[in-house]
Amino acid sequence: MHIESGVVDGAKIVLSYATAVGAAGLVGKMALDTIRHDGGVAALAVRSLITTALVFCFFEILPHYPVGVSEVHLILGSTLYLLFGGGAASIGLALGLLFQGLFFAPFDLPQYGMNVTTLVVPLWAIGMLAKRVIPQRTAYVDLKYTQALALSTAYQGGVVAWVAYWAFYGQGFGAENLTSVLSFSAAYMLVIIVEPLVDLAVLFIAKSLRSLSSTPWFANRLLKPAT
User: Fold this and answer.
1) pLDDT value for 214
2) 141 and 223 in contact (C-beta within 8 Å)?
3) What is the pTM of this model?
4) Ramachandran region, residue 6 (left: φ > 0; alpha: ψ -120 to 50; beta: rest)
5) Which runs of E-coded beta strand occur in 62-214?
6) What 3-state class would DSSP assign to 70?
7) Which of 27, 73, 180, 221 could form a disulfide with 68 if both were Cys (CB 3.0 to 4.6 A apart)?
8) Burial class (CB in 10 A: 0-12, 13-18, 19+), 39
């Protein structure tokens, strides 16, 4: 989902600064919710360290391929959300992306505002969706495949929508750009086949290791129904 250098440039890139500020506001909102309702500052700090390290590894270690206007990554956004909650997941996505740019891909830093928006806004959206599709009495370890699929589809669909937006905003609707966007979208949506299975596998492990999962390292909702 890394927007390629040059897709949005010149004065147009200023918009990405504004959307990044909005994304930062969403990160702050989700972090505040964690502090108030899901373990406090210490739990948020520990979970954020874990998610940042995981996101950094996802970007650097897991396979990723350039396709069309961007790259196809297995980001596991819904997995991070289910394990660690929206606050820590959003901080991890923002910082992991930043550290990757600082240490391994400085050419991506000008696109940081676009990329962090692309990652964080869909994460906030699946938090809203989870309230609708997952009953309060259901702990995340008891999710069904259809529920995990709904969250993954919403997250990956949001990523694709933002990438398409940036591409069309920067390069217009010419045939070449349209083909690049469509090829990226088709490739990226294949992730939807994999991510729900990863979610359920990770949740099964968490359920099996209930004593470890009940530590402050993980979101309260992972093992306990919402109150």
Assistant:
1) 63
2) yes
3) 0.93
4) left
5) 65-67, 70-72
6) strand
7) 180
8) buried
